[in-house]
Design brief:
The structure holds 3 protein chains of 3 kinds.
Chain A (H helix, E strand, L loop, with lengths): L7 E3 L4 E2 H11 L3 H8 L12 H11 L21 H4 L5
Antiparallel strand pairs in A: 1-2
Chain B lengths: L5 E2 L3 E2 L5 E6 L2 E6 L4 H7 L6 E2 L6 E2 L12 E4 L2 E5 L10 E3 L16
Parallel strand pairs in B: 3-9
Antiparallel strand pairs in B: 1-2, 3-4, 5-6, 7-8, 7-9
Chain C lengths: L3 E4 L3 H12 L4 E5 L12 E3 L5 E3 H14 L3 E4 L3 E7 L2 E6 L2 E5 L1 E4 L3 E3 L12 E3 H10 L7 E5 L3 H12 L3 E8 L11 H11 L18 H9 L6 E3 L2 E14 L3 E8 L12 E4 L2 E4 L3 E3 L2 H6 L3 E4 L4 E4 L12 E3 L9 H18 L3 H5 L2 H15 L8 H15 L12
Parallel strand pairs in C: 1-2, 1-9, 2-5, 9-22, 11-18, 12-13, 12-18, 13-15
Antiparallel strand pairs in C: 3-4, 6-7, 7-8, 10-19, 14-15, 15-16, 16-17, 20-21
Classes of the chains: A mainly alpha, B mainly beta, C alpha/beta.
Protein name (chain A): Pyridine nucleotide-disulfide oxidoreductase family protein
InterPro entries (chain A): BFD-like_2Fe2S-bd_dom, BFD-like_2Fe2S-bd_dom_sf
Pfam families (chain A): Fer2_BFD (PF04324)
Chain lengths: ~90, ~110, ~400
């Protein structure tokens, strides 16, 4: 692959392939740790655009044996909502 | 961008009521019941916001509410998805701006 | 009071709502989009019979049927969480919390992203975005576009863009990398297109099925695939070119490509720049199952179905009591299959809710049989081994049946 530095994977946090690769190498981290260190998939959309790409990249660094388990946990809210909405205020 | 008025299979576009709205202080026309994203593209506007930190331009990506790239401020309410919001008469829409990052080290100074 | 909350008003959700309401259940449907129909909206292709499949018309039919049955369809409602409640489920939305003993998750699919340098520029969109813009909103995505990615979805939408008079300059592959994988290998792309060739709705995919029957000829076919590509209604399909960068400052101005060999390796010194004002990224679809995950549903990884899929039975039940799934969340297939699955799910829910009509008759069995029949008939098949994927899921369901919580105990 050429020009990894320019290849943004996570659009929200502008995390590049090169950043993911070097972080994975430096810290030999799990998928979850790589996400926390780089913030890939943790931006405004909550990983709804890049999650599958991230899974594939992380799997290329550290192949995961147990494919039945979703690599990164899904957590609510799965759509952006205001604190008012979560708090039960609906006006 | 051009509207698809006559379509070989889907037929002619229903004649709809026009509404006017504002985007970043300028007035534009839209068709009633269409989304903000469609109305802006029909007016030739692709850039809806800039990335808060880097300032890179952004527009619609998924067009169905997943990616949040098209988020704009509608009638002073921030982070509204342009692709899922119907445009209304007199609506004021503002695109997102770049935020200051005073504490961030710039590259080369580390 | 609502007996059933359906999340998603696409073909599966609406068909499910209609089947359930037909037995007397009170049904509420919620959807994020501005109008019901889900990804039926935008679908437009010619069946092998010559008839046109117009998704907008199909969605309208379902909507009318739903209204006649008193189904409450609420658009512009986003679901952000789902939890078990005392008697069933709590569905959290931007317009408040809904509660019902039964929930049908019919959230469909999302597009597999293929990151390309420059893909954040305005004017770069997922291919589905261009479809919605064209056929639903009736606004041209641009004057001249380039599609990155060659798969069934890309060709279906290419055809739709051409029908709307939008110029698509060329279809190229993504550069081969950890994300694009086989989508960046001409050999693999040709193989997958040929597998689907007999099912394809338009002539474009039948181009080489006779010529490239066996492996040897197929390899020669890939190696000697013409540089300028074969034309699909005037648009060159360039399987030996890969997009390496999308160029532009304020918005898309063009795509830089390189030539690649049959396995996706870059041939040095073959850079070209093609002008365009929009780019569509076509990575294919995967089941959008985040709500099932949040609800705590177990998953199975089945590539033939599109990846991680909530475990479910042929009656569209999940191991969680009162929670059902239908449509592309259970595997990527045509909208017609989704509709048939929705009907099965609606009847299955009615049966559990103790509705006589559904419980005593053979309606549910017939609906399940109908899903299989439709699957064999449909014009568009996203994965050649879909049947294998489906039988794997059925095996998984049976293997876990004893350990799962039996649905149907909490009907109230």
């Amino acid at each position: 692959m050429i020009e990894n530095k320019q290849l943004i994977i996570c659009r929200c946090e502008e995390v590049t392939y090169e950043q993911l690769q070097s972080t994975a190498r430096q810290h030999t981290c799990s998928a979850r740790e790589l996400k926390l260190r780089t913030r890939a998939g943790m931006g405004f959309c909550g990983g709804r655009t890049c999650r599958i790409a991230l899974d594939a990249i992380m799997d290329s660094f550290i192949p995961d044996e147990n494919k039945a388990v979703i690599p990164l946990k899904y957590q609510p809210p799965i759509r952006p909502v205001s604190f008012g909405t979560v708090g039960g205020r609906h006006d | 961008m051009t509207r698809i008025i006559d379509h070989a299979i889907l037929g002619k576009l229903d004649s709809l009521k026009k509404v006017s709205f504002q985007f970043n202080g300028k007035s534009y026309e839209a068709y009633e019941h269409e989304t903000v994203a469609a109305a802006l593209l029909a007016n030739g506007i692709r850039q809806l916001r800039v990335h808060e930190e880097s300032g890179t331009p952004r527009g619609i990506y998924c067009n169905i509410g997943h990616c949040m790239e098209c988020r704009v401020t509608v009638n002073h309410q921030p982070n509204v998805r342009a692709c899922l919001t119907k445009v209304e008469e007199g609506m004021t829409i503002e695109s997102g701006r770049r935020h200051p990052t005073p504490l961030k080290k710039t590259e080369g100074l580390q | 009071m609502t007996d059933l909350i359906v999340i998603g008003s696409g073909p599966a959700g609406l068909a499910g709502a209609i089947a359930a309401a037909g037995t007397g259940l009170r049904v509420t449907v919620v959807d994020e989009f501005i109008r019901p129909g889900g990804r039926l909206l935008g679908q437009l292709h010619q069946e092998p019979s010559g008839e046109w499949w117009n998704g907008i018309k199909e969605a309208e039919k379902l909507q009318h049927e739903a209204h006649a049955l008193g189904i409450n369809i609420r658009c512009g409602v986003s679901v952000y969480n789902i939890e078990t409640a005392e008697a069933g489920w709590k569905v959290y939305t931007n317009e408040g919390v809904l509660e019902a003993p039964f929930v049908l998750i019919a959230t469909g699919a999302a597009e597999y992203p293929i990151p390309v340098p420059g893909w954040t520029l305005p004017g770069v969109m997922s291919i589905g975005a261009a479809q919605v813009m064209t056929n639903v909103h009736r606004v041209q995505a641009g004057r001249k576009g380039i599609i990155i990615g060659a798969n069934i979805l890309a060709f279906a939408i290419l055809n739709e863009l051409q029908l709307a008079g939008i110029k698509v300059d060329r279809v190229v592959l993504p550069e081969k990398n950890a994300v694009s994988r086989q989508a960046g290998e001409p050999e693999a792309v040709i193989r997958s297109l040929l597998n689907a060739a007999h099912l394809a709705p338009s002539a474009l995919l039948r181009f080489g099925s006779r010529l490239m029957k066996n492996e040897t000829i197929r390899n020669i076919g890939t190696r000697f695939y013409p540089k300028n590509g074969l034309k699909i209604n005037g648009t060159p399909l360039q399987l030996r070119k890969a997009a390496v960068e999308i160029i532009g400052t304020e918005q898309v101005e063009g795509v830089r490509t390189v030539d690649i060999d049959a396995y996706g390796h870059v041939i040095p010194g073959t850079d070209r720049l093609y002008e365009a004002d929009f780019v569509c990224i076509a990575g294919g679809l995967y089941p959008l199952a985040e709500l099932a995950a949040v609800a705590g549903c177990p998953f199975e990884y089945i590539p033939e179905l599109g990846g991680h899929v909530p475990r479910h039975s042929e009656t569209m039940a999940t191991p969680l009591p009162g929670l059902f799934v239908a449509g592309n969340i259970t595997g990527i297939e045509s909208g017609k299959v989704a509709m048939a699955q929705g009907t099965a799910a609606g009847l299955s829910i009615a049966k559990q809710a103790g509705k006589q009509a559904a419980a005593s008759g053979r309606q549910l069995e017939q609906a399940i049989e109908h899903v299989r029949t439709i699957r064999q008939q449909v014009a568009i098949q996203f994965h050649p081994d879909i049947e294998l994927g489906r039988s794997q899921m059925n095996e998984q369901w049976k293997a876990h049946e004893g350990t799962s919580v039996q649905p149907g105990e909490k009907i109230g």
